[in-house]
């Protein structure tokens, strides 16, 4: 089906023209409100034109009012309870020995369908491992990877290669963050699982290497998922170590069944929190520069 506007239903309010982010809808006497042929190919499929139309006159290819849209729910969240919700969350690294029902993970992932995205959101793949035994299979190889991080950083040639291949941001994260922690043997399995923290489940976000905006989209999806977990009474932590190991170690990639052509971006561990924090933390120190 093509993009179209039902002229009988259209009230010519022009709101669709106003909200379209890439200006592919126009109006003239002959065609009324219409999709501009030579611009249609840049449609972002954001659905905003259909969402704002009061008469359901618009049809965007791939969308239907019946399947993809529903009445706008009441917004019950104001600034105060939004802040309270955020302040109430902590990254949870201590979990009860209690499995998470699949149904709750479905609910967590439902939030991804409401998340903003940069180009090509569907290129982000999501792998759910709701199986502690499977996760444990990957731990020895991830721990070994973290041991190797120490060796690589201490080797000037390996360091140079990481910087060149992965860029300054990744290199500095490894050198200034991961290396000192690994050097102190923090991740050694003899101390327990400090990688996935005995969580019963992990969600991994990955995408074909080089796919448009996949890093940003994955981080937003992971953040939304972590917040959704919190809203369901679950605990979650965003974990960067697991995707780093997936991308470097074949065995880890195989355990999590991440396709060879994909790059893992970020992961989120999920479980029932073992402890309740008594205080919230308000972090300061971000450098905010107002230009007026
Ligand atoms: C991109 C990113 C990667 C992270 N990777 C890890 C990780 O590998 N292991 C871990 O324990 N926590 C990880 N975290 C969680 C942070 O360490 C955590 O947010 C921080 O300790 C602040 O705690 P809070 O979330 O309770 O405020 C990561 C967070 C982000 C945003």
Report on this model:
The structure is a single chain. The protein has 292 residues and is an alpha+beta fold. It folds into two domains: 65 residues, Alpha-Beta Plaits (2-Layer Sandwich), CATH 3.30.70.20; 204 residues, NADH Oxidase, CATH 3.40.109. It has ten helices and eight strands. The protein has a four-stranded antiparallel sheet, with helices on both faces. β2 and β3 form a beta hairpin. α5 packs across α8, α6 packs across α7 and α6 crosses α9. The longest helix has 28 residues. The protein is globular, with a radius of gyration of 23 Å. The termini are far apart. The mean pLDDT is 97. Flavin mononucleotide binds next to β7.
Roughly what percent helix?
A: 25-40%
Number of helices: 10
Strand content: 5-15%
Q: Specify the CATH homologous superfamily of the largest domain.
A: NADH Oxidase
CATH class descriptor of the largest domain: Alpha Beta
Bound molecules: flavin mononucleotide
The CATH topology label of the largest domain is NADH Oxidase
Number of domains: 2
The shape, in one word, is globular
Tally of strands = 8
Look at the structure and give the mean pLDDT.
97
The CATH architecture term of the largest domain is 3-Layer(aba) Sandwich
Low-pLDDT sequence parts: none
Gyration radius, rounded: 23 Å
Oligomeric state of the chains present here: single chain
The neighbouring-strand order within the major sheet is 5-6-8-7
What string gives the helices and strands in order? EHEEHEHHHEHHEHEHHE
Biggest β-sheet description = 4 strands, antiparallel
Q: What is the compact description of this entry?
A:
The chain has 292 residues and is an alpha+beta fold.
């Amino acid at each position: 089906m093509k993009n179209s506007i039902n002229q009988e239903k259209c009230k010519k309010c022009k709101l669709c023209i106003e909200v379209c982010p890439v200006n592919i809808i126009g109006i003239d006497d002959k065609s009324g409100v219409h999709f501009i042929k030579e611009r249609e190919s840049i449609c972002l499929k954001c659905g905003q034109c259909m969402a704002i139309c009061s008469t359901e006159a618009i049809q965007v290819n791939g969308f239907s009012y019946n399947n993809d849209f529903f009445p706008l729910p009441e917004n019950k969240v104001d600034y105060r309870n939004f802040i309270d919700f955020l302040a109430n969350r902590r990254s949870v690294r201590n979990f009860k020995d209690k499995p998470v029902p699949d149904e709750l993970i479905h609910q967590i992932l439902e939030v991804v369908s409401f998340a903003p995205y940069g180009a090509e959101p569907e290129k982000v793949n999501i792998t759910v491992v709701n199986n502690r035994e499977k996760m444990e299979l990957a731990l020895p190889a991830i721990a070994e990877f973290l041991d190797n991080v120490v060796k690589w950083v201490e080797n000037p040639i390996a360091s140079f290669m990481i910087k060149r291949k992965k860029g300054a941001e990744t290199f500095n994260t490894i050198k200034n963050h991961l290396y000192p922690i690994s050097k102190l043997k923090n991740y050694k399995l003899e101390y327990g699982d400090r990688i996935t923290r005995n969580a019963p489940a992990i969600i991994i976000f990955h995408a074909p290497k080089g796919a448009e905006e996949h890093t940003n989209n994955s981080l937003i999806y992971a953040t939304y998922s972590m917040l959704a977990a919190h809203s369901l009474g679950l605990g979650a932590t965003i974990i960067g170590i697991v995707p780093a190991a997936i991308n470097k170690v074949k065995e880890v990639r195989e355990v999590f069944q991440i396709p060879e052509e994909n790059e893992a971006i970020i992961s989120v561990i999920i479980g029932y929190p073992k402890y309740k924090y008594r205080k919230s933390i308000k972090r300061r120190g971000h450098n905010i520069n107002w230009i007026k």
